[in-house]
Structure formats: structure tokens, C-alpha cells
UniProtKB/TrEMBL annotation:
CDD domains: TPP_PYR_POX_like. Keywords: Pyruvate. Pfam families: TPP_enzyme_N. The keyword Chaperone does not apply. This is Sulfopyruvate decarboxylase, alpha subunit. It comes from Thalassobaculum litoreum DSM 18839. InterPro entries: THDP-binding (IPR029061), Thiamin_PyroP_enz_TPP-bd_dom (IPR012001). One of its GO terms (molecular function) is thiamine pyrophosphate binding. Residues 14-108 form the Thiamine pyrophosphate enzyme N-terminal TPP-binding domain. It comes from the Bacteria.
């Protein structure tokens, strides 16, 4: 995988994700393991004030975060675009209860995708989320990530909205098939 490198001494966009979540008092980070979210996952696992949970499947995260909210705590769901398809029916829970739902979605089936199985859901991700009432924003350049996550978190946690930031494949880098 070749990602956009940070300049020496500068923080990468990946390093900015967890501090933004912390600034919104996020106490739960739930995820299906993904290289694009690796820095946030490692940081959440190392933070004693955050419960990090690896999910079996992405839709479990929506129910988990609804429960965290009922318990008075905030959380975020980290997943790949292929997992969005698993969540579509479960997104009705947020639509009916209006709990704050923040999702960070790394894109596959996007720019320079080598795996054709990723393409159908990758191309449908944003439209599918929007059809389920999720507000979406897309970051394709490192300088877009922090402000988009900040804005989405504000809308989710202060307005009880369902929000997703789509992290384009150009951010994460081109994946290479390794035999």
C-alpha cells in the first residue's frame, strides 16, 4: 500500500483522527480491523479512557453505539466501504431513535482498486448511506480530513444526526496485490 506521506515532523491525517474523537468525549471506538484506520485503532486500544472493540461485522457497531449513547457515552464506528452494505438495514435504528452516530469509512472500489469485488459497494457507498438518511462528506486530500471529521462530529453529537466521513482511497494509498 502506498499512502500519501507526511512531511518530516508533520502529523499525518491518520494521527489527527483519534485526538478529534477525544475532543468530542468519544469513549467507544468500534471497528472491523482495517489498515486505513490502523493508527486510530492502535491509539484507541492504548487509551485507558476509551473502550475499543473489534466487531465481527459492521452492523454490530450501530447497536453497540446506540447502547453506549443510552448509557450516556459517545462512540464512533470505523469501517471500510464494503461494510456499509452490511449496515443498511441497521441504520433504521438511528433513523427511528435519533441517537448520534458518527462513522468513518475508508473507501475501497474507488481510485486504483485492484480487487473487482470491492467495486460495486465502493461505487454505491455514498448513495446508499444518503438513501438511509446519513449525512456524508468525502475527503480525498489529507488537509480535508480533520475539518470534515470535526464538522461531522459536531453535527452527530450536537444534533443527534447520523454522519459519515468517507476517506477516499487516494488518502489511504494504492493497494497492491501481493502473491
Amino acid at each position: 500500500m502506498t499512502a500519501m506521506p507526511a512531511l518530516k515532523g508533520q502529523e499525518t491525517w491518520q494521527d489527527q483522527v483519534l485526538p478529534i474523537l477525544r475532543s468530542f468525549d468519544v469513549r467507544h471506538v468500534v471497528y472491523v480491523p482495517d489498515a486505513g484506520h490502523a493508527a486510530a485503532i492502535r491509539g484507541a486500544e492504548a487509551d485507558n479512557e476509551i473502550t475499543s472493540l473489534a466487531l465481527t461485522t459492521e452492523e454490530e457497531g450501530i447497536g453497540y453505539l446506540a447502547g453506549a449513547w443510552l448509557g450516556g457515552e459517545r462512540g464512533a464506528l470505523l469501517m471500510q466501504s464494503s461494510g456499509v452494505g452490511n449496515c443498511l438495514n441497521t441504520l433504521a435504528l438511528q433513523a427511528m431513535t435519533r441517537f448520534p452516530l458518527l462513522m468513518l469509512v475508508t473507501m475501497r472500489g474507488d481510485w486504483a482498486e485492484f480487487n473487482p469485488w470491492q467495486n460495486p459497494m465502493g461505487q454505491a457507498t455514498e448513495a446508499a448511506l444518503q438513501l438511509m438518511g446519513v449525512r456524508t462528506w468525502r475527503a480525498d486530500h489529507p488537509d480535508e480530513v480533520a475539518p470534515l471529521i470535526q464538522g461531522a462530529a459536531t453535527m452527530a453529537f450536537n444534533g443527534d444526526e447520523s454522519c459519515a466521513v468517507l476517506l477516499g482511497q487516494r488518502l489511504i494509498g494504492e493497494k497492491k496485490w501481493v502473491k
